[in-house]
Every structure is written in structure tokens, then in C-alpha cells.
Amino acid sequence: MDRIAAASTGGFQDEASKAANADNFGGAFDLYGVVSLIFIRQSLQLHANIQLRDSKLPKLRSLAEKYIRVIMDTVREDGLGWSYGRGIGAYGQMHCITLLLQALRDRWVPVDKEPLARDLVRRLYANFFTTFFDAEHGLIIVRDAERDTIPGHTTRMANFDAARYLPSGRASPRPLAATSKSSNLSAACRSAVLLLR
Predict the structure, then answer these.
(1) Which of 117, 155, 161, 171 is deepest in the core (most CB within 10 A)?
(2) DSSP 182
(3) Is residue 53 domain-resident?
(4) Is residue 13 part of a domain?
(5) How far from each other are the two terminal CA atoms of the chain, in whole angstroms?
(6) Highest-confidence range of 47-61, 103-117, 146-160, by mean pLDDT?
(7) Do 146 and 80 touch, CB atoms closer than 8 A?
(8) 169: closest CA among 157, 149, 187, 148?
(9) 58 domain-assigned
């Protein structure tokens, strides 16, 4: 978190910050700020030392709340999530969904904003599954004639990441990998609707 703060501008992770390199122009605010918060929160959730976890959460919350406000202000009516910078597309949807679900679970969203956050998760899921989900094969598609992504992203990796990030049920938030193969992601879509009721 200290490294994020050191390379940030206004509390947002700046991928081209002047603090990292004096020659940088600064102002590259992409999805990787959201991704780092998600990884840190998931690592703390699994950490054996409860005192360490509880001492780190307030600082993480102050960083995450900035991104949560941005997501809540910028998600379009059609459910398009993070739409600028590197790694957008399927990942722009997945990471916004994950951060909002984490924030709702941890009560980081103000009570008066919870209905909006739940509605945004519904719209993000709907956009994600209508845009990137191939129902015939039960797969997430990130690269074909209609869609494209950065070279490091592959369809196989996107499906693995979707299984890690997206919840598969209301009562037990186990990863999708624990469910049957081709129905994994369609089950997640149905579960998301139940999860947010």
C-alpha cells in the first residue's frame, strides 16, 4: 500500500507517475490500480494473522473508497465498466464487479449508496455476459472478430480469472472452478442476480 501511495496522484495509482521516474509525463490511471486493491484485499482475507489483517484494512479502505466512487460515477447505463487505459474489456468488467462486491461485503459503501452499488453490479454482470460470454460453449471470449485485448490476455486465462473473481453462489462464495465445467459462468450469472436481491 505504501508503494501504491508513493506512485500515486491524488490517491489513485499512476502507472506513469513522476515519482517513479522524473521523465514520466504522469497521469496514466488504468485498471491496475483497481487490480492491486483486489489482490491486497483477497490476500488479507486469507491471512492467518487476524490482528495484521484488521490493522491494514482501514488504510486499504481509504484507498479503495476513491476507486469505488470513480466506478460508481463512471459505469455507463449499458453496464460498461472501466473503459480506459490498459487491460479493459472483459477485465474492466470483472475487476469492477469484484471490487464492488468486496466493498458491499465489507460495508465500505455508504448505506444510502448501497442500492446504486447493487444496481451497478447487476448492470456490469449483464454487460459482461452479453458481451464476452459464449453461451454455446460456456466460455468467456476476449479475442475474436468482434473483440480484442492486450497481447498478454488469452481466452484460457480470462476463463481462469473469471472462475477466480466472480462468485458462484449466494451462500458460499467459492470460486467457479468448483462447479461443473461449461455451466460455470452461466451459473455465476444466475447466482449474481440472486446474490443482489
Answers:
(1) 117
(2) T
(3) yes
(4) no
(5) 33
(6) 103-117
(7) no
(8) 187
(9) yes
Domain that holds residue 145: 31-195
**In terms of DSSP bridges, do strands 8-9 and 12-13 run parallel, antiparallel, or are they unpaired?**
antiparallel
Amino acid at residue number 96? C
What's the domain count of the chain? 1
Among 189, 188, 193, CA closest to 168 = 188
Judged against a pLDDT cut of 60, whether residue 184 lies above it is answered with no
What single string gives the DSSP state of each residue in 114-129? HHHHHHHHHHHHHHHH
Tell whether pTM > 0.85. no
Number of H helices, E strands in the chain: 7, 4
C-alpha cell at 73: 460515477
**Residue 141 to residue 149: CA distance in whole angstroms:** 10
- CB-CB neighbours of 77 under 10 Å: 6
Which of 72, 196, 66, 144 shows the shortest CA–CA distance to 153? 144
- Identify the pLDDT of residue 180: 43
Tell me the pLDDT band of 185, cut-offs 50, 70 and 90: low
Closest CA to 95 of 106, 105, 107, 81: 81
